[in-house]
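TA notes, week 10

Several of you asked for a full example with nothing omitted. So below is the full record: structure tokens for the whole chain, then the designed sequence directly under it. When grading your own attempts, check the secondary structure regions first.
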């Protein structure tokens, strides 16, 4: 959509460009209503791509399309427009539930992304590891609910100091709270 929109702008087809912006806003709305952090990040990215070309809005002569776009933007939650604050807790629940029903979890994809050696979980007390991870993610969830950025930054710094002491699973899955 981004490339199509750019081509439409270059060719002077503002209606098509606006339709692409509206489609990106629809993607933003959909992705912000799901339950994982990655979906929230996709929503944020989609919105950013749409907003990059906001100057096209001034060229529009289609009030119906403009109204549809405005409705989508106004429907976003002002405190959590892309759902990430909500999804930190949702992702904790999804991960904990997955870990509880998986005898020997395979973390290969995570270690591959992090460029780390594969993890042998056979010596882990998985119940304790899951409990520690869940407790840490609850703290992370509380941080994401803070409206004061300075307070959240201080809480994140304290949480980062705590991550290594919460066990192997927490260290693997939550390598740094600052990255969120």
């Amino acid at each position: 959509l981004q490339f199509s929109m750019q081509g439409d702008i270059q060719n002077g087809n503002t209606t098509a460009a606006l339709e692409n912006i509206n489609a990106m806003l629809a993607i933003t709305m959909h992705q912000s209503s799901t339950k994982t952090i990655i979906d929230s990040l996709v929503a944020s990215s989609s919105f950013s791509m749409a907003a990059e070309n906001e100057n096209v809005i001034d060229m529009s002569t289609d009030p119906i399309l403009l109204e549809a776009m405005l409705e989508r933007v106004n429907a976003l939650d002002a405190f959590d427009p892309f759902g990430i604050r909500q999804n930190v807790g949702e992702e904790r629940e999804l991960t904990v539930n997955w870990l509880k029903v998986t005898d020997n979890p395979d973390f290969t994809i995570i270690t591959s992304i992090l460029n780390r050696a594969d993890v042998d979980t056979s010596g882990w007390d998985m119940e304790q590891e899951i409990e520690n991870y869940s407790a840490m993610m609850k703290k992370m969830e509380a941080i994401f609910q803070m409206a004061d950025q300075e307070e959240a930054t201080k809480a994140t710094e304290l949480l980062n100091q705590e991550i290594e002491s919460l066990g192997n699973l927490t260290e693997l899955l939550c390598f740094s709270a600052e990255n969120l």
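The longest helix spans residues 126-144. Use that as a sanity check on your answer.
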